[in-house]
Amino acid sequence: xxxxxxxxxxxxxxxxxxxxxxxxxxxxxxxxxxxxxxxxxxxxxxxxxxxxxxxxxxxxxxxxxxxxxxxxxxxxxxxxxxxxxxxxxxxxxxxxxxxxxxxxxxxxxxxxxxxxxxxxxxxxxxxxxxxxxxxxxxxxxxxxxxxxxxxxxxxxxxxxxxxxxxxxxxxxxxxxxxxxxxxxxxxxxxxxxxxxxxxxxxxxxxxxxxxxxxxxxxxxxxxxxxxxxxxxxxxxxxxxxxxxxxxxxxxxxxxxxxxxxxxxxxxxxxxxxxxxxxxxxxxxxxxxxxxxxxxxxxxxxxxxxxxxxxxxxxxxx
Length: 317
Description:
Layout: H1 7-11, H2 19-33, H3 42-58, H4 61-68, H5 84-88, H6 109-120, E1 141-147, H7 149-154, E2 156-161, E3 168-173, E4 182-185, E5 201-207, E6 213-216, E7 219-227, H8 228-233, E8 235-239, E9 246-250, E10 259-262, E11 278-285, H9 291-299
Parallel strand pairs: 1-5, 7-11
Antiparallel strand pairs: 2-3, 4-5, 6-7, 8-9, 10-11
């Protein structure tokens, strides 16, 4: 096997690499060569497919073990066993081969069929006595799909190209999909061989950050600017949520940092998860220059002595 076909070489990790080492190496290379980040770059696209194929082998403990034992190659294809010559090559011509030198019984058709069955993994024979070629499941293909924050929260449908030129398919992204979640589309991976089933398409979701929403499990958080008059007098204001704008009452005398809760306006309910809430943290904004407000504050004498807003920061001797 050439180094170009070795998944360890492709991902740049050693044979003793841990699953986490393999995962980190794959993500780094997949991001570097992703077709979305290298439009029109055929070399980058080819390398991305190669990296994905290597990760397909090494991220699966069973496939990794089989590759290490030489049972499959770097593309996941079956390798012919290497031990049969040693097992059978010590006998005399025309005789059964044995584990040690010396003549044995003559070969017959059933003996040859048995050897071919071992070599090719067959479970039967064609009527004419010829060994059947083994069937094999197609390889799973891995993709990275970047989606918007609101697509992940509310759900969406994306159109993707299927493997091996089999057209497009619609991929449904469920509401509440989390960053790095992997979607499995069964039967849309590599084609099976000799009648074997197709592999699956494994799509790792990367959620892009939002400019003012952040997510904590099922809840959404938001820093919400309000005017000075809204903070002092209170009143109804419009608040953006992942499901659209809603109206909410701001209590009078609200300070910066006050947090208001909108129940059920976070991540929508999905599966066993109930709908989350939206938490709006108020940020008082003075806004543009207002001469009338400045004149009022200069002559204003409050009936109740004002509280020092920095009192909590003062240290006592």
